[in-house]
Amino acid sequence: MFVNRTVDFSAKKLDDSQYSEGIRNLIVRMDEAGSSALLTGSVQLVGLAEIRQKFGSGWDSVGSQASRIAEEEIGARLGGTDIYKPDDEGYLICFDSVDEAGAKQLAQEISRAIEDRLISLLAGVGGDLSVDSFVASVPTASFRSAPDPTYALKAALTQIRIEVESAAKERPFGHILAKANVVFQPIWSSQAHGKTQNRSILDPLSGTAVAKYIEEIDDRDELIEALANLDCVVLTRSVEGLHQALKVMKRASIAVPVHYHTLTSDFSVDLVSLGASVPTQYRKFLLIDVIGTPAS
Asked: Which residues pair with 84 in a beta bridge?
């Protein structure tokens, strides 16, 4: 759920030559850890070109602020031995970790944090700005004989993204879930009961796309698998929201809906694994709300 690493200092922002050397150093550490792959990824600012055009000559100042915001969020969240560099309209990241699920979670948190701040910075300008993250495990063999490891990394990531996007077109539900988010519906406020409790639900846009997909499923097992995958995403996003809420209020709690058939099927394994990864100090603030229980 979260990457629980003690961070003593911010991640290193490097230039091109330093980044290539940083990749080589990380490969040595991956060898020592017994891993044959390097966790890499990117954070891209999508729609920035249109907004830059609207600002015209005033973009230099705003663009500097946007870069500072992105680098603050990246540097504050990555570990001290992770590395990153500016790349086109975004940033290229290498993680000093073998935890792929944790790296993906971290990249998504970074993207949302940057997007929230940039939307505030660019309020009133117009344009559809979003921040997209991507994480992939790239075999270290791809870099060992490369004259420029950074170039080899970018080429490998480009190829992986093409393959992932092609697969997403064939299996649209995975793409829907990757973009899904949740909102929190108040159950009661702290003024009435001494603490704030919310129910986690899919945001309307995600919910509409999910409903349309699920309506077309005829096979029972496929339907249960789809609902189980949805439950895992909602739980993940809910814990992220709880993490943010507990920074400003000490008694927030969230009821997370989980389908009955998820808990009673073989697909419960992933959900249980996610639940077990929730930090112990958060568990008392989470309530599982079982939905879809058969009348019998």
From this structure: 13, 93
